[in-house]
Write a structure and sequence with these properties.
disordered N terminus; Four Helix Bundle (Hemerythrin (Met), subunit A); about 80% helix; 7 helices; mainly alpha
């Protein structure tokens, strides 16, 4: 169906949110993490007992709490983009800030979780499982920190002036990156905390 037909039918034309460049970056990032995940699963298959026993030292409460923070943050960010598209004024930056606060909550929980492991003598060198745990969650935490910077930018960017199509596209790009950070955590949570 052509865009003219779509617009004539009263339905909005579908579009890829954000800039094309952000999707190239996201695709590359997903490919790298996919290699990480395949490597983890392959090595787990060679020492299931070690990986399963090591997994018992992770706090499912911390993992679930961080999942709650990431899902809540993504919900706030999605609502912020919807508010921007509807030009709801100051609602948009407030929602981006709520997403930022959830990201901050994630970081605080991860800080306490790392601290708990280190106090119990569990480090990067403990075994292969914890090498992957610290490496993968550490790289993901770097994404969270960058993403929080992106959300802070989006909040500031959406605060001033009317939101035209170009501004909305930039906000969509910011939101798309953050949603990928959320998706990566969901996979990490499943692989590290849940898979038996």
């Amino acid at each position: 169906m052509s865009s003219a037909t779509t617009q004539a039918s009263g339905k909005p034309a579908r579009h890829l949110p954000g800039e094309a460049g952000i999707w190239l970056f996201i695709f590359g990032d997903m490919m790298v993490f996919s290699l990480f995940f395949v490597t983890f699963v392959y090595n787990r298959g060679h020492d299931v007992a070690l990986f399963t026993e090591s997994q018992t030292h992770l706090s499912q409460f911390f993992g679930a709490l961080n999942t709650f923070f990431m899902l809540s943050s993504s919900w706030f960010v999605a609502m912020a983009v919807q508010a921007a598209r509807k030009n709801l004024g100051k609602v948009t930056p407030v929602l981006f800030l709520m997403g930022f606060c959830c990201g901050l909550g994630f970081g605080i929980v991860k800080f306490f979780e790392y601290g708990d492991k280190i106090r119990h003598g569990i480090t990067l060198n403990t075994n292969d499982f914890f090498m992957y745990y610290y490496m993968f969650t550490g790289i993901h935490m770097m994404h969270v920190i960058i993403g929080m910077g992106v959300l802070a930018f989006a909040a500031r960017y959406s605060w001033s002036g009317p939101l035209d199509a170009n501004k909305i596209k930039n906000l969509e790009s910011s939101a798309s990156f953050w949603h990928v950070v959320d998706l990566l955590w969901i996979v990490l949570f499943a692989l590290l905390y849940l898979v038996k």
